[in-house]
């Protein structure tokens, strides 16, 4: 590590802020927490060396308020900004301002972020690099007429996606020309409201796919490695809820292809830092690039568990100018890791968020059981942000042993006072189709209905 005195402003909240502060401490680097008025009692505020309030509860006024975050960094003498995920993590305008202020953004540069932020553009780059992409529109679509022409060329069903989309929002399945005419305006309005741009693109909708993504690490000296794949097919409304590494659907040969495609894309855009290249895999084992996420992902711990590499530490080391300390041939992937996202939500009532005061907590533990969280007894989970309370991660030599370990850990995980989806995960871990590995990205929607019916005694 070089000798400059570093201080990192952690521009996020929740478990990822706690995770980053811990890593800073291990590296001997001072950290500054930022918090909204609703988060003054949050764990990240207590753990960082310094903490600074950046505004009122709504994220628009605090965690998304660029001038407040930049002022917090400058006034505390911070030298770098760690974005975590969400909020400003993939906001190229923010990254550009950070750069202009002479601060180091712990992630890719604003120009690289611009390339991957435009998903239609990223598809073109992937295609030009020789990576398979799902058949789709060749350019960004501004009007319904353009979309209809492309729809006819590609054939229905199709997916209408926001060019600058993320988090599963602004994605609509379209089965016919009539449906495209009906849903165009509303999808465009949603894209404009969520992402500030109404530009859309089309992709052929592939049924029964699996979502598999590859973790990459790239330093500023053009060294790029991958840490294998994560399976994130268990999604509800395109939001991941359980992730595992490796994937049931990837064998050695496919892993090789996914890994080299992910590396080729990362190199093509001269990416620096940790990133994730996302693919879907169809029933016949064909894989297609869908996008790159230019940040740490919620599900990164499963890759850490099978590779033994601390991704947040590597993110910081890379940003400080260090070369990657390992080459591809040094990477050994071992065993199986599973992550369950423990959310404050009521799975029996359409997964309604259930914030509130947490009374008692008992965390599970034992050999290779990990809980990444920010909650503590009597903490009030605020209603303003996402409902993630904790990530429960287990590792075991084989998938079935990891499932058994996860069942025990869920059984021994108690969060009192508010509703959580612990029981939902527990039921899932016992579902024969899940255990057999017989599922795709639609599985959780069906399973969630089954759980509700069973609860009603149907
Ligand atoms: P976001 O950027 O909002 O996360 P993605 O483009 O990554 O959107 O897609 C989100 C999810 O939608 C994927 O994980 C996958 O389950 C599904 N998906 C994306 N593209 C396709 C496709 N062409 N066919 C079928 N499902 C898809």
Summarize, please.
This protein has 458 residues and is of the alpha+beta class. It is 35% helix and 24% strand.
What is the terminal-to-terminal distance? 61 Å
- Output the CATH class name of the largest domain: Alpha Beta
Radius of gyration: 21 Å
Small ligands present = adenosine-5'-diphosphate
Write down the domain tally.
3
CATH architecture of the largest domain: 2-Layer Sandwich
Low-confidence stretches: none
Share in helix: 25-40%
Strand order of the largest sheet: 13-12-9-10-11-14-21-19
The CATH superfamily of the largest domain is identified as ATP-grasp fold, B domain
User: What structural class do the secondary elements suggest?
Assistant: alpha+beta
User: Averaging pLDDT over every residue, what do you get?
Assistant: 96
* Silhouette: globular
**How many beta-strand runs?**
22
User: What is the fold-level CATH name, i.e. the topology of the largest domain?
Assistant: D-amino Acid Aminotransferase, Chain A, domain 1
Helix run count = 15
Largest sheet: number of strands, sense, barrel closure = 8 strands, antiparallel
Strand content: 15-25%
Question: How do the helices and strands line up, and which of them pair or pack?
Answer:
Elements: E1 7-10, H1 14-27, E2 30-35, H2 43-47, E3 50-53, H3 66-75, E4 80-82, H4 92-100, E5 104-105, H5 110-117, H6 119-128, H7 144-154, E6 158-162, E7 172-174, H8 177-195, E8 200-204, E9 210-218, E10 224-236, E11 239-245, H9 252-268, E12 273-281, E13 287-293, H10 300-307, H11 311-319, E14 336-343, E15 345-346, E16 352-353, E17 356-357, E18 361-362, E19 369-373, E20 380-381, E21 388-396, H12 399-411, E22 414-415, H13 422-430, H14 432-436, H15 443-456
Helix pairs in contact: 4-5, 7-8, 12-13
Bound molecules: adenosine-5'-diphosphate.
């Amino acid at each position: 590590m070089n000798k400059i005195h570093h201080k990192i402003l952690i521009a996020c909240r929740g478990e990822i802020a706690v995770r980053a502060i811990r890593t800073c401490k291990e590296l001997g680097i001072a950290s500054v927490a930022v918090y909204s008025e609703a988060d003054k009692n949050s764990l990240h505020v207590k753990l960082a060396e310094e903490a600074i309030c950046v505004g009122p509860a709504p994220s628009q006024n605090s965690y998304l308020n660029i001038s407040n975050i930049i002022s917090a960094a400058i006034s505390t003498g911070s030298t770098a900004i760690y974005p975590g995920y969400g909020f400003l993590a993939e906001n190229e305008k923010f990254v550009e301002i950070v750069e202009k202020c002479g601060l180091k953004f712990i992630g890719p540069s604003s120009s690289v972020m611009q390339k991957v932020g435009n998903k239609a553009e990223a598809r073109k780059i992937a295609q030009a690099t020789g990576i398979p992409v799902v058949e789709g529109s060749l350019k960004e679509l501004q009007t319904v007429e353009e979309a209809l022409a492309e729809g006819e060329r590609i054939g229905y069903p199709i997916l209408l996606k926001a060019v600058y989309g993320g988090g599963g929002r602004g994605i609509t399945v379209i089965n016919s020309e009539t449906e495209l005419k009906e849903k165009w305006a509303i999808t465009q309005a949603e894209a404009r409201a969520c992402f500030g741009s109404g530009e859309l693109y089309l992709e052929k909708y592939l049924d029964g796919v699996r979502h598999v993504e590859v973790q990459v690490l790239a330093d500023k000296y053009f060294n790029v490695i991958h840490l294998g794949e994560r399976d994130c097919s268990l999604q509800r409304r395109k939001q991941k809820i359980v992730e595992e590494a490796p994937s049931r659907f990837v064998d050695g040969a496919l892993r090789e292809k996914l890994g080299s495609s992910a590396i080729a894309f990362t190199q093509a855009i001269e990416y620096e830092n940790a990133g994730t290249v996302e693919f879907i895999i169809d029933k016949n084992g064909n894989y297609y690039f869908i996008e790159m996420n230019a940040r740490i992902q919620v599900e990164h711990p499963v890759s850490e568990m099978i590779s033994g590499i601390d991704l947040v530490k590597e993110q910081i080391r890379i940003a400080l100018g260090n070369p990657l300390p390992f080459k591809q041939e040094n990477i050994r992937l071992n065993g199986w890791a599973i992550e369950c996202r423990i959310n404050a939500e009521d799975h029996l009532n359409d997964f309604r968020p259930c914030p509130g005061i947490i009374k008692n907590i008992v965390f599970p533990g034992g050999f290779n059981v990990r809980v990444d969280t920010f909650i503590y007894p009597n903490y009030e989970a605020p209603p303003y942000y996402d409902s993630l309370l904790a990530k429960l991660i287990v590792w075991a030599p084989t998938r079935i042993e990891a499932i058994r370990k996860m069942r025990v850990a869920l059984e021994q995980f108690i969060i009192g006072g508010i509703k959580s989806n612990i029981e939902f995960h527990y039921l899932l871990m016992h579902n024969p189709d899940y255990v057999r590995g017989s599922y795709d990205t639609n599985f959780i929607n069906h399973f969630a209905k089954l759980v509700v019916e069973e609860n009603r005694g149907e």
